[in-house]
Design brief:
Number of domains: 1
Number of helices: 17
Oligomer: single chain
Order of helices and strands: HHHHHHHHHHHHHHHHH
Strand content: under 5%
Low-confidence stretches: 1-14, 170-179
Largest sheet: none
Distance between the termini: 66 Å
Radius of gyration: 21 Å
Structural class: mainly alpha
Number of strands: 0
């Protein structure tokens, strides 16, 4: 028995460097894929990026595109990385901002689905569903408050432009500090382009976009799995020590755990069974859930480091929009007592309806993530 234990420990020691090396490779693939999407978008559209995305120029349409895409993919990290790539290829920042906001709402579908595991037990389901939907209502409220302000005053566009100015060299549009990315990604992209040289420029661009999006899927999926293997024990330890020690501690811990596991869906899904089984209360996990919104911004910031050239500054800008939006939502909503209660009260209200009639759950999911977005898209496009 002792020999088996020693062997397992040795395997862990040997396996850990392999896992870390794999994680570094997946990070490289993420950087490479964003470069592919940005380069491909430029090749495919030339100077017509604005024309191509005119259908999404309406802010509500952009919001719904981000929401639906994230709900389908179930990963805001993937969608925001794709958006960074598109901005790197010429998609206007003002068009991309509502998409980023929509991605915040779309990512909440995962933990709502996770809560359905408790649907057979009335009390468990009430708590689990409330703990899942509090994330929905917080992000919806954030969009209700900040999207109109963005449309009227461009607050996040201006704030992110100011923030990105610290990374921009005087007199040009090149980002300092991030130039080391280009030498490790550009040769691979050029090699791919040369292998596709039998196609015309537009088709090479389309191929790069498709290949880049596919690679983003692979990179983020495996990054999540690797981070879970490497960090989930530490994440659970942080989780155990985080809840119930005050709002600021909860927000910070939610941010940290999400950075460790690279997925807000994973972070919020970890706590739902604990609430369902009455180990934790909905009110206690509320700050932790908000922190996951901030932590998930790390992926877009990493993706932005891959971008060089004329649009590099805009790629970093949209990543900073994601961060500033989530920070502003946390400060305003959680900082004002009246607003802070709205997601909490709303989650209890919908969970009360759900235990009286289970059909409410499916109407809620289909309405929020399918019917309403589709109807709005149809009316605004």
């Amino acid at each position: 028995m002792e020999k088996i234990t020693v062997a397992l420990e040795n395997n862990k020691k040997v396996g850990s460097p392999i896992l870390w090396a794999s994680l570094v490779f997946m990070l490289y693939l993420l950087l490479l894929s964003v470069t592919m999407v940005g380069g491909g978008f430029k090749m495919a559209t030339g100077d017509q990026a604005k024309v191509l995305f005119e259908f999404a120029s309406h802010p509500i349409a952009g919001l719904m595109i981000g929401l639906v895409a994230t709900a389908l993919i179930q990963s805001s990290s993937t969608v925001t990385s794709i958006i960074v790539g598109l901005v790197a290829g010429g998609l206007p920042v003002e068009t991309a901002i509502p998409m980023i906001m929509g991605a915040n709402i779309g990512t909440t579908v995962t933990n709502t689905i996770v809560s359905l595991a408790h649907i057979r037990e009335k009390d468990e389901f009430k708590n689990a569903f409330a703990s899942a939907t509090i994330h929905d209502f917080f992000n919806i409220l954030a969009v209700i408050i900040f999207l109109p302000l963005e449309i009227m005053f461009g607050i996040f566009e201006k704030v992110s432009e100011w923030l990105v100015s610290f990374f921009v060299s005087t007199g040009d549009m090149s980002i300092k500090s991030f130039n080391f990315i280009k030498p490790i990604t550009k040769p691979v992209v050029k090699a791919i382009e040369s292998h596709l040289s039998f196609l015309n420029s537009e088709m090479i661009g389309v191929s790069l976009i498709i290949g880049g999006i596919f690679t983003i899927f692979i990179a983020i999926t495996f990054m999540g799995k690797l981070m879970k293997k490497l960090m989930v024990g530490r994440a659970k330890e942080i989780l155990k020590n985080a809840i119930g020690k005050g709002p600021l501690h909860g927000i910070f811990s939610g941010t940290l755990v999400t950075v460790l596991v690279q997925s807000s869906s994973t972070t919020t899904s970890l706590i739902i069974p604990l609430v369902g089984n009455k180990i934790l209360k909905v009110k206690e996990i509320y700050p932790f859930t908000i922190g996951s919104n901030i932590g998930t911004c790390i992926t877009a910031l990493l993706a932005a480091t891959a971008v060089t050239g004329d649009f590099a500054v805009f790629a970093l800008q949209i990543a900073l929009v994601h961060l500033s939006f989530n920070l502003a939502a946390t400060i305003v909503i959680f900082g004002i007592p009246f607003l802070r209660k709205i997601p909490l009260n709303s989650s209890h209200w919908i969970s009360d309806l759900a235990i009286k009639n289970r059909g409410v759950v499916f109407v809620y999911l289909i309405s929020l993530f399918v019917v309403i977005p589709s109807a709005i898209l149809f009316l605004t496009v």
